[in-house]
Write a structure and sequence with these properties.
This is Alpha-galactosidase. The protein is α+β, with helices and mostly antiparallel strands.
């Protein structure tokens, strides 16, 4: 059986009553040699046949997969569905493939139903299992010039840090004449699903010019595995496999009892392959991710310019006297949303972090008209009002804290939490009704933008009567997803932002329910380019909210903001720091902050110009995908001189940011493959000559396919457009 979609070929092989997947690639070459290794496209563990027979997946972690018998193949216009049954365990397993329109990718959904008369205990259900990769070509599979694995590291204020390695560097290498058991694992435990890695992978066959890519979509535990299945002996016959899972006792402590007739649905995963390398993989993943995004309640569904009063600005201390000049400045600059971040619900003297959950406006921060008066001023200035929430937690000093224990996540019968906060349990209908009421009330006040933050992580799991704590956590995550789906139907005119202390919860399980994703809490402007360049690969660019904070008040200076602004005024007069900030945000979703109400004429004009340019570019941004002419930037490299950009093949247009940090070089040459042999034009599009003393030099070499730029000053940035 050969299934084709876009550039992909997926080949299955029948052996009696069994159907196994054998190959995934773009050419079909070498597929016949892989047919003896065909295996059902799902990995299962059913107690007592526990999932953990071997250290890697060569023969399957358990014998359950080997016992699956094909019952039905259902072809559909948008994909196909395979139904397997296991005669011993009396389970039905459905593996549904959904082709992604316009992208060389598919979504895979796996469900398991107990068709027997007794409960069964599952201890592993893969979301995706695929093999038959990297078998073409003449190089040995472990040759470092053959396969490269690209993965993304994450940490707080240091998101989007991409790395690339060969299989042997990662621990997958040949050792004997027996089948290979080595594998490389990436995983996460808890609800900060992107606190260590992003749950996506790119595998590049450098020799043959093919690339495979995938992601798993859950905010709970997850695990990704790359290994090799082979026949053993002296033969090189074999191929790479990938397993993505979020329901595994071995890799996250998950197990679940299924009653007769009950079905378990594993979290969704997506995968694909294409000709090319890393850049082509991200292009296809970006096309796929765009199919998950919702239309915005704005004219033309345009992503609005947001001003948020938190980062390098008010730092969670909004008052009438500080907000009014910021609202006026943001409106004059061209912002379309003004968002009041944390603190709007607490008194001036209280520790508002301990009172989260009641969400009542402060009585002493906003003057005689209170918060409604401030929201009215925002609307009067032509902007949508926004507020910050953290709707999954409750502070110990909140009235909400007095609710019964079944309102909260429990472990060992006790409420889970830290730093005077505990977590609400969205599996409880009363919790959902309460939070719906909060959002209804804010929407009635005119709030049209909500930033939902998530500053702590539920770790190993929560109490669950029918399974492990990890199973309870996955059920809780699904319940919160369902709640957000209800909210979006209930308030279709409200824009939602997802923030998890920056991007600590940036998986596409949660992101398909939100319109904007915070990319970081990074507050040092010259460190942000390394985060921006990485985010263009982990997110659809228009989905990625990137801070631009001219005239910053850094966190240590927040109590002496006026003095800090006066101290720094002289070194900001040339506008270069403002330009750098604006360039950071012009490749993605521009997300403004900083004390722009204190900007001088030149700096304010640069802010206005940058916002106006973003409004011109935002249609292009949502139709383009990332390029990295000089590779990914690293956040620890203060000497960096780097670039990142967006490319649209249909328009023949690229927009490229160039950042010079403390590099001693003034010139940087950018290889641009799309230039080679084509007539082209290049120009600087930000800043304009009217607002900057220095214009960067730029020269094209179409025959070599390069753009060379000159930035004379350290810690400077410029934005260029290239047309072919």
């Amino acid at each position: 059986m050969n299934k084709k979609h876009e550039q992909m070929q997926m080949i299955f092989k029948t052996h009696g009553q069994k159907l196994g997947q054998a190959y995934l690639g773009t050419t079909g070459a070498g597929a016949a040699a892989l047919e003896p290794l065909a295996l059902a496209p799902v990995q299962l563990g059913v107690r007592p046949r526990t999932f953990g027979r071997y250290a890697a997946l060569n023969d399957g972690y358990s014998s359950v997969t080997e016992g699956l018998v094909l019952h039905e193949i259902v072809d559909r216009a948008d994909g196909f569905r395979l139904l397997y049954r296991h005669p011993e365990h009396h389970i039905a397993v459905t593996v549904a493939y959904e082709w992604v329109s316009g992208a060389s990718a598919y979504r895979q959904n796996v469900s398991v139903t107990n068709e027997g008369s007794e409960p069964i205990a599952l201890d592993h259900v893969s979301s995706l299992f695929v093999q038959g990769m990297g078998a073409e070509g003449i190089r040995d599979w472990n040759d470092p010039a053959k396969i490269r694995v690209h993965y993304c590291l994450q940490t707080w204020e240091g998101e989007g840090q991409w790395r690339s390695a060969g299989l042997e560097e990662l621990g997958v290498f040949p050792v004997a004449v027996h089948p290979d058991f080595a594998a490389v694992h990436f995983s996460s435990v808890g609800t900060w699903s992107t606190g260590r890695f992003v749950p996506m992978i790119v595998i590049e066959d450098v020799e043959c010019g093919q690339v495979w890519y995938g992601q798993i979509e859950t905010s709970s535990h997850w695990h990704m595995e790359i290994g090799r299945r082979s026949l053993g002996g002296t033969s090189q016959a074999g191929s790479l496999y990938v397993q993505l899972d979020a329901a595994s006792e071995r890799h996250g402590g998950w197990w679940k009892s299924l009653a007769p007739g009950e079905t378990f649905q594993a979290p969704t995963a997506a995968f694909g392959c294409a000709k090319g390398g890393f850049q082509e993989a991200i292009r296809e993943l970006t096309r796929y991710r765009r199919t998950l995004l919702r239309e915005l309640p704005t004219p033309g569904s345009a992503y609005p310019v947001i001003f948020n009063d938190y980062m390098n600005c008010l730092w969670g201390n909004p008052t009438e006297e500080s907000l009014v000049p910021l609202i006026e400045a943001a409106s004059r600059a061209g912002a379309e949303v003004f968002m009041i971040d944390a603190g709007w619900f607490g008194s001036r003297t209280a520790n508002w972090g301990q009172g989260l959950g009641d969400w009542n406006p402060s009585g002493d921060r906003f003057g005689q008209e209170g918060l409604p008066g401030i929201l009215g001023l925002i609307r009067a200035k032509g902007m949508l009002p926004g507020l910050w929430l953290e709707i999954e937690v409750c502070g110990e000093e909140a009235g909400l804290f007095s609710k019964p224990d079944d309102w909260f996540l429990l472990r060992g019968g006790r409420r889970i939490g830290a730093s005077d906060r505990v977590y609400l349990d969205y599996r409880n209908p009363d919790v959902r009704a309460y939070v719906h009421g909060v959002i209804d009330r804010l929407a009635a006040m005119g709030v049209r933008y909500i930033k939902n933050d998530y500053n702590q992580c539920v770790s190993t799991g929560v109490d669950e009567p029918s399974g492990s704590e990890a199973a309870g956590l996955l059920d809780y995550v699904d319940a919160f997803y369902q709640f957000m789906d209800e909210v979006r139907e209930r308030h279709p005119n409200v824009i939602w932002e997802n923030c998890g202390s920056g991007a600590m919860r940036q998986d596409y399980g949660i992101l398909q329910r939100f319109d904007v994703q915070s990319t970081s809490d990074q507050e040092i402007y010259w460190k942000y380019p390394a985060i921006v360049s990485g985010a263009l690969a982990t997110l659809a660019p228009e989905h990625a909210g990137v801070w631009a904070y001219p005239m910053p008040v850094l966190f240590p200076d927040r109590e002496q903001a006026d003095a800090a602004l006066e101290r720094d005024a002289a070194r900001m007069q040339d506008g270069e720091q403002t330009v750098f900030n604006m360039v950071n945000g012009l490749l993605a979703n521009l997300y403004m902050s900083g004390r722009i109400d204190r900007a001088d004429e030149r700096n304010f004009a640069l802010v206005q110009e940058g916002i106006a340019l973003f409004k011109e570019l935002r249609g292009f941004i949502r139709q383009s995908s990332g390029i990295w002419p000089t590779g990914m930037m690293r956040i620890g490299d203060k000497q960096a001189f780097g670039s990142a950009g967006l490319w649209n093949e249909e328009q023949g247009r690229a927009v490229i940011a160039v950042w010079r940090l403390d590099s001693g070089d003034e010139c940087l040459t950018l290889p641009l493959a799309f230039l080679r042999g084509r007539e082209a034009q290049a120009r600087q599009i930000y800043p304009s000559a009217a607002h900057a003393d220095k214009q960067a030099g730029a020269s094209l070499n179409e025959s070599q396919g390069t753009l060379t730029v000159r930035l004379e000053g350290r810690f400077t940035a410029r934005l260029f457009e290239v047309l072919v």
